[in-house]
Amino acid sequence: MAFPPADASASRRKAGPADPRPTQFVLVFTRATIRDDSKTGIIGALRRTASFIAAVLVLLGGSVAWHPGDAPASLLHAQGSPPPAPLMLITREGRRAVPTTVVSGQELIGLDDLATLFQVTVREDALAGGVTLSYRGRTIVASADQPMASVNGRVVTLPSPVVRSGRRFLVPVEFLTRALAPIYDQRIELRRPQRLLLVGDVRVPRVTARIEIPGPPTHATIDVVPQSTVAIVAEAGRVLVRIDADALDLSLPAAGGGLIEQVRVGDQQNTVVLALNPAAGMPRVAQATADGATRVTIDVPSGAAATPPPTDTTAAPRPSPPPDASLTLPRTGFQTVVIDPGHGGDDRGAKGGGGLEEKALTLDIARRLRGLLESRMGVRVVLTRDDDRAVPLDQRAAVANSSKADLFLSLHANASLSPSMAGAEVYHLQLDSEGEAARRQAEADAVTLPVLGGGTRRLDVIRWDLAQARHVSESARLASLLAEELGKQVKMSPRGVQQAPLRVLEGADTAAAVIEMLYVSNADQEKAAGTEDFKNTLAQALYAAIARFRGFSEDQSSR
Amino acid sequence: MQIAVLVVTLGLLGWAVTVGLERLAGPVSDVAPPPAEPPQPTAHITATLFYATPDGMQLLPLRREVALADGVVAQGRQILVAQLAPSPEGQRSVIPAGTQLRAFYVTDRGDAFVDLSREISAAHPGGTLNELLTVYAIVNAVTANLPAVQRVQLLVDGMEVDTIAGHVDVRRPLTKDTTLVREATP
Q: Which residues does residue A298 pair with via DSSP β-bridges, in sequence order?
């Protein structure tokens, strides 16, 4: 928040002549800005004190009614023009346009809009001539004559003071990131060139499409940064690229080229459509991820010699069924669940003070869960062990892989040195540098092969013992669903969802998680684990999470 | 005259190289001077060792005195012996009782190998959380105190193992994990 004194005096001069403000307030702010770069020492202390006093003064003035006659010139009737495009607010819940107005080159946003969008309370401060915003006990005091605000006692600079337009107050859009963001519970990011306002944990990758060689054959690329899950549907006449994101930060070519007539946003905001010339043949697509970016390459040959059926390249992450499989039942996409009851045989796992053994509890819950999945969901369920025997960790993952599991759940019970530690935890795999390298290598080594009937299929080549590296994002999703559903029915540990380099997960070539269902080292939990009620509740919660994951999984593969 | 000077210089150089090589080679001849400063038996360094936090959820870093030793490997041994030893009063160790250090060495690449006796597995209480704490107390104790070491490979009875208690993959060298460490509140 560098703030050169020259600027400050300039803006004071601008506001000065018409300024009936109590001088005390102005002086306080002047002091606050003189040595804005000092973080320590007596000046810094003075500055903090001054900011605090300023905030208190302004707060004290808050109850006094606003008299338009007292208003400085800068607040009166700002006449603005609309911006070239509205600001698009993107949240997890969706998107909406936020109106802004441009006054002498400065883009302003209404505080009433902010109050609605961000659940902040806005009050006028007649005495100080500004406004106070409150959010969860945190306060922003924005000055009406100084281009700055006090944010929880810290002074930040703004391109312009608060502006009054009729009954409304307007602030520069930079207010969002400089003043509101520091006190807000969620991330607020303003991408002005793209007209995007991102709030919370939203994924808005930058998507750059280029027609590299007009051809024909026409060669185009779409780069997605940071790397994202991309589903591509290539069919005669068009290529549909769907990016797993809340919104896209798009940079598309203005005009088509070669056999690509147009590159545009799809009906859904996270898709890009390449419209092809009628003379174009069947497009070939491939994707690869390297250095944190996903690159989609599209090659469009000329001549519609043969128009094979559309191929969804993402529908075949594993060896696809033989062609005649399509003559039988349609594949639902989620058919097999492998449940791994942890430990077994000589390996008893953790032991409770009352004698409960982890290996027995995991098998018990696994059988209950199998019953629920088979009877209610109708999926195939495979247990890695169905009796009390030792099974090597690699073999457990191998069962998942040879069963073509759509989901691998390893059930465990935890132990802690602290007897009070209790609750369920969910783990998904944390890749070390070697695993991360293997994942990148696999993506770089991926080969795209033509398949019978046209189109292509992608084959990934990866070390078998690091197969999980390809599924880290869906496993993270699975882990969060498990934690959500478990949290509804059983006690969760304060550790919740964790990532760890867990051996049993590494070789699983599917979405996978380890569930630590409870702490056997906690006497109450050990006792509860002996009751039918608790065991059924646990199985029920796991079932609910799997049902939700199935929906997510099928949704992904149908895209 | 010049030749004489050259001969004398070469002679001195030869003597210096011979003496130097003898001293480098280790076995000290009867003419070598006694070791200049034998390490003081009371000399210590302050090392960061890791114990369980009171709630058992994380690792508590604790500054403790460890015998000073000459060189990375010898110092590493001292640090590990202290980390494996029974915990000081008021702390709880995350290492199973009876675990001994069998060997410790460091490769040129900065990978340390910590060879532990079988108690690390056999006497382990189990549970993913406990196992994470056990593994990373050792990994962090080595990496936090020996800047030359980047990664730590655990061995049990001289052998590579999949896990020490059924969960955490220790087949490859591990880097330190600071997320398991609870920093002291100021």
A: A220, A285
Answer for the pair A546, A407: CB distance below 8 angstroms, yes or no. yes
Backbone φ, ψ for residue A502 (5° rounding): -85, 130
Of the candidates A83, A109, A249, the one whose C-alpha atom is nearest the C-alpha of residue A180 is A109
Say whether residue B11 is in contact with chain A using an 8 A CB cutoff.
no
Q: Which of A397, A413, A417 is nearest to A405 (CA)?
A: A397
DSSP track, A470-513: GGHHHHHHHHHHHHHHHHHHSPEEEEEEEEE-BHHHHT-SS-EE
Q: Does any CB of chain A come closer than 8 Å to the CB of residue B137?
A: no
Q: What average pLDDT does range A273-280 have in this prediction?
A: 84
Per-residue confidence (pLDDT) for residue A307, from 0 to 100: 42
CA distance B133 to chain A (A): 10
- Region of B163 (left: φ > 0; alpha: ψ -120 to 50; beta: rest) is beta
Work out the angle at residue B110's Cα, subtended by the Cα atoms of residues B109 and B112, and round it to the nearest 5 degrees. 120
Q: 3-state DSSP call for residue A515?
A: strand
Return the HEC string of A225-277. Answer: ECCCCEEEEEECCEEEEEECCCCCEEECCCCCECCEEEEEECCCCCEEEEEEC
| Cα–Cα distance measured from residue A87 to residue A100, given in angstroms and rounded to the nearest whole number | 7
Residues contacting residue B101 through CB under 8 Å, at least 6 positions apart: B77, B80, B81, B84, B114, B115, B116, B117
Q: Under 8 Å CB-to-CB from B33, ≥6 apart: which residues?
A: none
Spell out which residues of chain A touch residue B172, defining contact as CB-CB under 8 Å.
432, 434
- Convert the pLDDT of each residue in B30-68 to its tens digit: 444 555 555 555 789 999 999 999 999 999 999 999 999
Of B127, B167, B175, the CB nearest to A416: B127
- The H or E element that residue B107 is part of is none
Confidence at residue A62, expressed as pLDDT on a 0 to 100 scale: 39
Q: What is the ipTM of this complex?
A: 0.74
Q: Are A274 and A241 in contact (CB under 8 A)?
A: yes
State the best of A417, A504, A518 to mutate against chain B, taking most chain B CBs within 10 Å. A417
Tokens of A34: 């003189």
As a whole number of angstroms, the distance between CA B30 and CA A449 comes to: 75
- B71 — phi, psi (to 5°)? 95, 160
Residue pair A294/A228 in contact by the 8 Å Cβ criterion = yes
- Using CB atoms within 10 A of its CB, is residue B69 exposed (0-12), middle (13-18) or buried (19+)? middle
User: Whose CA is closest to A359, among A342, A376, A346, A373?
Assistant: A342
